[in-house]
Amino acid sequence: MRGQVDPSxxxxxxxxxxxxxxxxxxxxxxxxxxxxxxxxxLGWDRPADPTDPDALWLGxxxxxxxxxxxxxxLTRVSGTATTALAVDPDNPRHVVAGGTTLxxxxxxxxxxxxxxxxxxSVTSLAFGPDGTVYAINDxxxxxLGK
Length: 146
Hints:
4-stranded antiparallel sheet
């Protein structure tokens, strides 16, 4: 089947990429212990920036990190603990991070703006087809606007 990749291969490559980022984080920040976070590989099968497949974002209790070399190096761009990230498919420089609060960047992580519902304990974020940001906590789906 020309042009198609076996889904199990994509899943394995995604997990490997997630683990590479986790290892880079532990090397860069020695105080982090590998058992402090999980590399699930979810969502790693699609690039964060279609024009730059080596660009990626990672969020966790230590903040938000960005890599421009497929996880070989990471730069912390926000110190806010994050449980969910969403990259705007129409503008890869627009990223929304969620945890106990929401913050967003329109310039690839150089500056962040707090916004959205406060104290909502975000577990998942997504951009809708019209650019609306959707945030989910344990029980409620919020449409947060564009």
